[in-house]
Write a structure and sequence with these properties.
By secondary structure, this protein is mainly alpha-helical. It is about 45% helix and about 5% strand. The chain has five helices and two strands, in the order ββααααα. It has helices at about 15-25, 40-55, 60-70, 70-85, 105-110, and strands at about 5, 10. The protein has a two-stranded antiparallel ribbon. A hairpin with a 2-residue loop joins strand 1 and strand 2 (about 10).
């Protein structure tokens, strides 16, 4: 039996959850199905990131994952640069770190707060 270790948590490959996930992967014949043998925590984290990207591909979660992991500026600006030649809406597009992670609070909500709210960072 192998263990996966991350942040001091040990997950026994023999437990019911791991067995179920493994069975589902092999039952659906997912390319790149893997077992729980990793060199270190960084490799396990990369594997989890790739899994979320595949599993949640069409569920609009990628942006929030990129922001959470601190990769949004690098990944999105690279995407905009690559797509600008094919699609003009990306010509002037850019992601600004510490601004575009947040959405502006709507004016109506700001007005209704009687000065209790302050606008999120950024020049909205």
């Amino acid at each position: 039996m192998a263990d996966c270790h991350s942040d001091g948590i040990s997950i026994d490959v023999g437990d019911a959850v791991s067995q179920t996930v493994t069975a589902l992967r092999f039952a659906t014949i997912v390319p790149g199905a893997y077992c729980c043998h990793h060199a270190d925590d960084n490799e396990l984290l990369d594997l989890c990131r790739k899994e979320r990207r595949v599993e949640l591909a069409l569920e609009s979660e990628r942006f929030f994952d990129l922001v959470r992991w601190g990769e949004a500026a690098e990944v999105l600006n690279k995407f905009y640069a690559e797509e600008a030649a094919d699609c003009t809406i990306y010509t002037n597009a850019s992601f600004t770190k510490n601004k575009n992670e947040y959405l502006p609070i709507p004016f109506a909500q700001m007005s209704a707060s009687n000065g209790n709210y302050t606008q999120n960072c950024g020049n909205w």
